[in-house]
């Protein structure tokens, strides 16, 4: 952590990537201590405000290297966390395609539909990895117009089988106004999936009577506000203070990355992710600036004559 009187060096440091290309990455603000301490002090993906690190004393390259390794470790953890679910979907679709082909009378149309799913999930994985690398490098990502209702419907459709298996009722309260934000569709999906998964896991781990998750979307001033609340056990007091820090988890199988990545994505969109007080269960609020259409804007999802998607993309706010 930078202390008064210490000179600082910039965030952007050359970091060797696994593919041996060199790029710049966000160095964490502190070096040394446990991985939790390093990451919790403002890990690369989770903190866009900490823009400086302490210089290594007397140019000690080992400390700088340790800082870079911490960045790489956090990026790796984030990628592992975020691509697990699409990878499972890819395996399931590929296995289903194989079954359709291996039937006595193969049904190629079904197999082909399954392979389409594989292709779209693989491209989602690529987009997720690209987005995480951009976040870790504090780089600007291209943004497009995103219609929040449609994103929520996509995300909840994918989770419905699991909700049904656990008898969790999902109450959706969407906005008829068709709220639009300027951002990364894949990254906003990631945030919603992470929040919904946490609610599902909280209820799964400590079952309650009439388990339910409610998701509400509404405008608020110049923002779009999405709240996700559940009637599970609520956030344990012991973890409340570090909820959004990387590696903070109360679960035996948790990585403690979901909320850290999600808050980082929210802030890269110029928004916020917070835990709200609630008498029972847990309630999280995602806020993203609302895009107000101006004459000449294309509709979300509309493809231009050049084939580019929607209104002119612009970099996400930092
Ligand atoms: N809806 C919720 N109800 C109760 N506790 C929650 C809820 N959401 C988050 N938490 C608490 O916040 C912690 C951090 O959540 P986060 O999503 O960052 O990590 P995780 O779920 O433990 O692991 P993973 O990285 O696999 O998502 C959780 O371990 C849990 O203690
Ligand atoms: Mg989680």
From TrEMBL:
Q: Where is this region: Disordered?
A: 1-59, 297-318
Q: What is its EC number?
A: 2.7.13.3
Query: Which keywords label this protein?
Result: ATP-binding, Kinase, Nucleotide-binding, Phosphoprotein, Transferase, Two-component regulatory system
On whether Kinase is a keyword of this UniProt record, the answer is yes
Transferase among keywords:
yes
Q: Which Pfam families match?
A: HATPase_c, HisKA
| Catalysed reaction equations from the record | ATP + protein L-histidine = ADP + protein N-phospho-L-histidine
Q: Which domain of life is it from?
A: Bacteria
Q: Which GO terms describe its molecular function?
A: ATP binding; phosphorelay sensor kinase activity
Could you tell me which residue ranges the Histidine kinase domain spans? 78-292
Q: Which Gene3D superfamilies match?
A: 1.10.287.130, Histidine kinase-like ATPase, C-terminal domain
Root EC class: transferase
InterPro entries according to UniProt: HATPase_C_sf, HATPase_dom, His_kinase_dom, HisK_dim/P_dom, HisK_dim/P_sf, Sig_transdc_His_kin-like_C
Q: Which PANTHER family would you find in this protein's record?
A: PEROXIDE STRESS-ACTIVATED HISTIDINE KINASE MAK3, SENSOR HISTIDINE KINASE
- Its recorded name reads histidine kinase
């Amino acid at each position: 952590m930078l202390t008064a009187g210490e000179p600082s060096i910039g965030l952007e440091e050359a970091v060797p990537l696994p593919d041996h290309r060199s790029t710049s990455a966000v160095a964490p603000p502190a070096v040394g201590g446990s991985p939790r301490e390093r990451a919790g002090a403002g890990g690369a993906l989770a903190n866009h405000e900490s823009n400086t690190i302490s210089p290594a004393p007397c140019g000690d390259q080992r400390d700088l290297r340790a800082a870079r390794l911490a960045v790489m470790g956090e990026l790796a953890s984030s990628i592992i966390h975020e691509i697990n679910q699409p990878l499972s979907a890819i395996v399931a679709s590929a296995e289903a395609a194989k079954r359709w082909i291996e039937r006595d009378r193969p049904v190629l149309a079904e197999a082909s539909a399954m392979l389409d799913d594989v292709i779209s999930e693989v491209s989602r994985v690529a987009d997720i990895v690209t987005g995480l690398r951009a976040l870790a490098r504090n780089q600007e990502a291209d943004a497009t117009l995103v219609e929040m209702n449609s994103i929520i419907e996509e995300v909840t459709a994918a989770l419905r089988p699991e909700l049904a298996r656990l008898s969790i009722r999902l109450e959706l309260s969407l906005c008829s106004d068709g709220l639009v934000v300027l951002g990364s569709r894949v990254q906003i999906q990631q945030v919603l999936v992470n929040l919904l998964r946490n609610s599902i896991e909280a209820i799964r781990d400590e079952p309650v009577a009439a388990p339910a998750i409610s998701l509400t979307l509404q405008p608020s001033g110049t923002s779009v506000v999405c709240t996700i609340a559940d009637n599970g056990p609520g956030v344990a007091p012991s973890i409340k203070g570090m909820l959004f820090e990387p590696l903070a988890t109360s679960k035996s199988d948790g990585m403690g990355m979901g909320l850290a990545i999600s808050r980082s994505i929210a802030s890269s969109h110029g928004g916020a992710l917070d835990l709200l007080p609630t008498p029972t269960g847990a309630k999280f609020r995602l806020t993203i600036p609302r895009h107000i259409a101006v004459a000449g804007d294309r509709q979300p999802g509309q493809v231009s004559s050049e084939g580019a998607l929607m209104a002119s993309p612009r970099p996400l706010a930092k």
